[in-house]
Amino acid sequence: MIRVQGLFKEFDDPRSGIFRALDNVSFEVRPGEIYGLLGPNGAGKTTCLRILSTVLRPTRGLAEVDGINVVRNPEGVRSRIGFMSCNTGIYDRMTAWEMVEYYGRLYGIPEEKLQARITEIFNVLQMNDIRDRLGGKMSTGMKQKVSIARTIVHDPPVIIFDEPTSGLDVLVARAVLQAVSSLRDQGKCIIFSTHIMREVEKLCNRIGIIHRGKILAEGTLPELADKYQQPDVEELFFDLIQRREEEVRNSGTNSEA
Amino acid sequence: MSWKNIRLVFLREVRDQLRDRRTLFMITILPVLLYPMLGLGIVEMMLTFSEQPRVVVILNADDLPTSPALLDQSGIGEEWFENGAEETSKLRVLAERTPQAGNEEKSARRPRRGEKTDEELLSVAHQLAEKIETLHGLRPVADESMEATATPQPTSAESPESNTSSAISSADEKAEAASTEAKLTAAQDDISQQFGTSGFQVLVIIPKGYRAAMEAMQREIQTSSSATTGVDAKAIATRVPPVLVVRNSADDKSMVAFGRVQKALQSWEDAVRKFSFEQAGLPKELQHPARLAWIEVALEEQVAASVWSKMFPALLVIMALTGAFYPAIDLGAGEKERGTMETLLISPAKRVELVLGKFATIMLFSTATALLNLLSMGLTGQQMSAVMSDGMANRVSLDFPGLAPLAWLVILLLPLSALFSALCLALATFARSTKEGQYYLTPLLMVVMGLTMFCLSPAVEMTPLYSVIPVVNVALLLKGLLLNSASSGNLVVYAIPVLISSIGYSMLALWWAIELYNSEDVLFREAEKFDIRMWFRQLLRTKDAVPALPEAGFCFILILMLQFVAMTYMKPDLTNGDPGLTMMRLIVIQQLTMIACPAVFMGMLLTTSLRATFRLRMPSITAMALGVGLAIVAHPLTVELSQFLVEHQVFPELPESARQVMGLMKTGDKPTWLLLLVFAVTPAICEELAFRGFILSGLARGGRLAIAVGISSMMFGIIHMIPQQAFNAALLGLVLGLLAIYSRSLFPAMAFHFCNNAIATFHAGEGGRIVADGVFFSRDPDGFLRYDAPLLILCAIAGTLMIMHMIKVVIRDQDAKRRGLVPDFRDLTKGEEVIA
Question: Which of B200, B460, B505, B644 has the fewest CB within 10 Å, making it most exposed?
């Protein structure tokens, strides 16, 4: 269960003063559903997800994972989430098994349970051939699998994916998406950020469209199609973005006048 | 904090480092191989290196007396050299003498290509001898030691300024003198040049008739001593013509050869003297009337220890630092670069656990590097001393120092390693990339090496003050303990402060590293392009109500640098006029221009609210009363504390300049108002504006008031430079900072400062008319007013109460702010009024 309410995040940029990455963002994700955070680059997706993973702290507002506040009890949150992004790499000099094992131990999983769990994951993700391969010698696809394994080794109720298929080829991306989908079927609460429409259409129960730090629209795909009279997600997305851009430009000229 | 997690992180990092072949190589193979290689290389070089024998030409050697004989068959007799055969082998003596039977083979030496034959050498020597004797004749020997140079010394006959009354009156004589001068210069140039290309390094010219004259002198002494008529001994002695020994001091080779020849000749002369004394029937003890005896107490192992006591501390420091640095880069900036930092941060491990695990890894590698290197070096040294030629081994033994010093080495390595590991981890985390991290190594290495070199100088000894300075304390302790002498037993007592302070510094550095791990700014910082114009513009454009943290730091550095400038350029001219007034004027100028002005200008330039920055608000009566009261109460305590520290030699004696200033405060002739103005009012205003105004406001932006007060007091202390005053100032700075924060105003702090300085001035001026009453006050032998225990206890109680009250109020205010009841000073960015 993820709950975000009135979230603000400001950065100090030497060039332009204060940069507001998140502007009053609010949404909820329930267990057993995949929430898609859709937006162009620089919209604030990564910032939002990093706040949820406790790596960044919000300037203002509330963010809760499974009822635990990310600011007040970050360790509690971290033990309940799995997080994967293109920035969460794997170690070059560790084998796949060692990597997953290390994190399993950090998550406090008792030893026998851990071994059984890792075996299970490796079977499900078909990673048995890279069990003893060093990270530096893996292809991108293999690294992604290891990352996924690491993300779910402790069976977290909440999983956060930040553009998990970026840079992947079609086959590997498909495998990743299948894994995400099966996790949802296990009842996990999943939030998933992307800028690829197809993924959104195929996977997400609900989506939130974010641009320049603001959530422009939110809801299930049918709901949004109905509300904006636009069945095509892509067109809907671009329309909303354009409208927002105009707003920003107008408010800019207004302030100058 | 979970030890299990720390252990997990530690084990993973160590295993990771060991899997890196490069690291393994650097840490284990390299030291093990490097030193033996180096050692072998040096031994090889030494074997191939043979010091070329230097050539000494002795002209007219036949005229040397036969007893005692300077020369033997092959050259200068062995008995005249300190080290016998070894030294004679370094000098090749070409003596011009009639060859004795059976010596033809020895004397005919086939020269190598490019070298001159013996005949050539002798002919050049003869030419030089002629020229030198001519020159020597032109200028008589000046002093009794028979020291003469071939280069002209200015004499009164030459310098035109002096002796105008002497013979140089006519133009002719002047011209003659000038031409003589020119001839002389030309002559020595010629001699110098020819000597340089001659092929020999020293030329000894035995004058004609030397032997005959010596024998005659000895005969005369003999006869004259048996007769009792007055004898002109000097006349006898000066009838012996001088032996000219020619060398070129500018040439190293000549100087080295000359050194040997001179020693040989002097010991030969001793023998001649002895012989003459015997001839004259004088007791031989008269030769050495002063009866000096040189006694050596150093044991051989102590000489050896001296070599290691210099080398080991320096090497230990370098090895520990470099051994810490490279793993740290990998574990800090390297993590960021490889993209595994975020993965680590989302794990449930706390930041503390991550830092400690990494720290342990780095410390392991640092210690291992240092130990392996030292071991390898020590063993190589021992091997080398076995291989090296006897001569050198006699003078310096490279055997390992005993077991106890080695144990100390290992023990002291640990705090050093801890400090470096923590520091390197913090720096490496701060760096944005591994490249940037490596750039931090050079200045760190330079600073550390500078400190170590400072310690190795024999004049520097362990003192209580040094025992708490990082790096210096360990180096000095190690140096002292490795000396293996009896006095090093006393040093063991210093081990405690050294260990404790080192652990303290390590913890500080670790704390910094943990802070960095908690700072999103540092963890996600990417390399930026630094544009100075943009930076400057932004600095002036985005002004806050109060200064930013770096601005406070910069202000401090600016003030510090101005103080340095003052020290070098503003030396007071104490000779003209009233030195007292001059000093006082200087003090006021310094305070105003170098302390107050930077702070005020920076405030005007960089902040929007001078009122907030400099806390120019009206304080409450309580606050003012507290300020004055604390000053009164603190004074006896600080006086007694300073005296205590001076007596226990924690601080060195006051330097001269400080004593001068103290003396000024004593002079009764200055009007009170002037003294107060200079020593109390001016510092109170200027230093408070700077330290409790600009700097404290800036430091408080960091969020933690206690740390801000602490750092501003340390800065305040450092400005005072002299250790005693610095310590005093730092302590008072803490109270002043607390006052400023408690009262939200600068004025109570100024009042405290004023009262404190005013009382101190009166105290220095013989403490007014307070009479020693044996209970509260007393006078010490210097006439200073001293405070006794009852008064001190009262003051301590009062002071503690006041301080605790202030702390309580401040904590209450902070708490209220945190709970949102009062606007946070962090809302400064919106231009709201600051509360702190």
Answer: B644
| Region of residue A148 (left: phi > 0; alpha: psi -120 to 50; beta: else) | alpha
What integer is the mean pLDDT of B806-834? 62
**Nearest C-alpha in B relative to A12:** B521
Section B421-450 average pLDDT: 88
As a whole-number percent, the residues of chain B with pLDDT over 70 amount to 77
Report the pLDDT averaged over residues A73-84.
91
E strands, A151-238, are: 158-162, 189-194, 206-211, 214-220
Whether residue B535 has pLDDT greater than 50? yes
Give me Rg for the CA atoms of chain A.
19
Per-residue confidence band for B700, with pLDDT thresholds at 50, 70 and 90: confident
Q: Which residues of B touch A53 (CB under 8 A)?
A: 346
DSSP A134: B
Q: Do A55 and B520 touch (CB under 8 A)?
A: yes
What Å distances lie between residue B776 and B625, B644, B771, B772, B789, CA to CA? Answer: 23, 17, 10, 8, 7
Chain B residues within an 8 Å CB radius of A14:
528, 534-535, 538
Beta strands A60-65 and A2-13 are: antiparallel
pLDDT digits 0-9 by tens, B644-656: 887 777 776 666 7
pLDDT digits (tens, 9 = 90+) for B353-379: 999 999 999 999 999 988 888 888 878
Measured CA to CA, the distance from residue B504 to residue B488 in angstroms comes to 25
Angle between helices A111-124 and A96-106 (to 10 degrees): 130
* Average pLDDT estimate for B720-733: 84
The predicted complex's ipTM stands at 0.90
Subunit contact B340:A102, Cβ cutoff 8 A: no
Largest distance between two CA atoms of chain B: 118
Structure tokens at B776: 């509260």
Parallel, antiparallel, or unpaired: how do β-strands A206-211 and A60-65 relate? unpaired
CB B768 within 8 A of CB B668: no
pLDDT at B165 (0 to 100) = 43
DSSP symbol at B375:
H
Q: How many residues does chain B have?
A: 836
Closest CA in chain B for residue A104: B347
**Among chain A residues, CA nearest to B352:** A75
> What six digits make up the tokens of B637?
């305590």
pLDDT at residue B166, as a whole number? 45
Using CB atoms, which residue from B339, B348, B523 is nearest to A79? B348
Contacts of A81 in chain B (CB under 8 A): 346
Cβ contacts of B528 on chain A, cutoff 8 Å: 14
B346 touches chain A (CB under 8 A): yes
pLDDT at residue B72, as a whole number: 79
Give the pLDDT mean for B25-54.
Answer: 77
Cβ-defined contact of A94 to B346 (cutoff 8 Å): no
What does the mean pLDDT of chain A come to?
A: 88
